[in-house]
What we know:
The protein is mainly alpha-helical. It has six helices and no strands. The chain has helices at about 20-25, 25-70, 80-95, 100-125, 130-160, 165-230. It is rod-shaped, with a radius of gyration of 31 Å. It holds the Pfam family MotA_ExbB.
Amino acid sequence: MEPTPIPPIEAVPHDFSFIGLFLQADPIVKGVMIVLIIASIACWTVVFEKIVRLARARSQARSFNTLVKTGGAIDGNADGISGHVVQAGLEAWRDHDQTESRAERRERIERAMRAALSLDVKRLQSGLPLLATSGSTAPFIGLFGTVWGIMNSFSSIAKSQDTSLAVVAPGIAEALFATAIGLVVAIPAVMAYNKLSGDVSRIQSSFVSGIGVLGNRLARERGASRAAAAE
């Protein structure tokens, strides 16, 4: 009686879905993917936080410029950037020197307001270096995962003595997936950094133009109050 032939064992198909590529990746490649995913989450957190803060700052800049150009009442108790700038201007206005000229007084008031503005601008810029760093380094981190995955593919070829696509495809797919994640992190980070940096600069310029008008107004009012006191 002839023995029953044993059917060949079918190779288990490799899962080429995103989750499958991640779960079946080499530990080093998987670590690269995790780092890039964490960086992506951090970048998007910064982006959404900046969108909210810059929208509020943009509204405050419009209100500040409307106030100083229409000659409205100056309130040093306002919140936000405009409140800090006005408060600094009023403090410099009260702390006057009887011997200084109007131009010197105006320069001192404007300098105090610009210093207060610089502190708030630095707060608005917090988090932007993360976007710049992620945008510049994420492609290279992904490239490291790519190189490592291709090295694994070559190692598989050497061990199996088989150059078929079934041997090298999994490692190459994992490698290219790491590159794709790096690009997915870098491209939005660079675009967001350029956009948000431009928004911060425009908001700062808007406040600076209003500071010039308000500084002139406060210097003029201080001069008028000194003249009235002298009479």
